DNA sequence: AAAAATATGTTGCATTTACAACAATATTAT
DNA sequence: ATAATATTGTTGTAAATGCAACATATTTTT
């Protein structure tokens, strides 16, 4: 007899729960993105240390971007990397000091700017790192079929374009 | 006559390019995730400032997590938030100081731990923030159909589980 | 032509974050 | 039983990041 009351009680509780069901931020795609990205970054850092790669992930991303956009100036690079000019400059200092890039003064729209390019040494380093990490990076994503990743990536890219229009970057 | 040589030259160049085509890190899903997440975080911060919300995004995520996991201890919370114990403690200090959570000493596996719970004030603040930001957060994602987001989110969740097994968290 | 605004890069500072060391206590190993 | 190890939280410090201010030069406005 008593368990009937109990069952009813549970049912009422469930109804109330459903009625006041809140969408939690921590269940949102925004938070999921942040957490996944945070883990990915940690893994990358640990991998770079384990493989004794002499540059940071940020420097690696910068080097890769420079290899694609030869002759880019600092501010434009900062925009692509979504970093402020100060930090971008500092990253470039270390890349230059390590001999992976060269910087030279040039003009853009009649203004003096610091342009840059990847060096032969930097190019070799980039390929070296690519070869070293490829296997590890693939092992993380291999469980999900590549086509699925392509879809996810295209959704994220569209999402990113939307974001870029809304965020004030001030770079 | 000359343009034939030129065309041939271009073709050869193209073939070479394709042969040595490198998968750039900046084209990878890993980097796409990081950049999208970075932008999302910037947008969130700007939104919180614009709406004059008195806590940070991190504090908000912590408060939300505590509201779901009543009576959780600090270290377990840190594991969920993927933050180190030091930072988690500091976030909790400010949340407690603002009266949004209460902390109390209890035991877990015979060990003294600091457990916590959300206060009535904290609960109201959480709902208040949820109402305030919902519209803005939806406006960023509304162009992509909800079902697509669900798929993306489930892929990311599976990906995250994979990551969690590979990353040394040390929390 | 003078003043205001813009573009680019650097410097300094304040905030955030990560990491290591520590204190206190409990468990496990020798 | 004593020593070694593990758990939990805090404190201190070094590194990363972001932001504002500055210096320089150019364009636009008045």
Short summary:
With 171 residues, chain A is mostly helical.
Strand content of chain A: 5-15%
Residue share in helix of chain A:
55-70%
Q: Let me know the number of strands of chain A.
A: 2
Compute the average pLDDT of chain A: 89
Instruction: Categorize the overall geometry of chain A.
Output: globular
Please explain how this structure is put together.
Two copies of one chain form a homodimer. Chain A has 171 residues and is mainly α. Helix content of chain A is 68%, strand content 9%. The first copy, chain A, has helices at 2-19, 29-50, 57-68, 74-81, 85-97, 120-141, 146-166, and strands at 101-108, 111-118. The first copy, chain A, has a two-stranded antiparallel sheet with strand order 1-2. In chain A, strand 1 (101-108) and strand 2 form a beta hairpin. In chain A, helix 3 (57-68) packs across helix 6 (120-141). Chain A is globular, with a radius of gyration of 24 Å. Residues 4-10 of chain A have low confidence and may be disordered. At the A-B interface, helix 2, helix 3, helix 6 and helix 7 of A face helix 2, helix 3, helix 6 and helix 7 of B. The first copy, chain A, binds a DNA duplex (30 and 30 nucleotides) through residues 58, 73-75, 83-90, 108-114, 170.
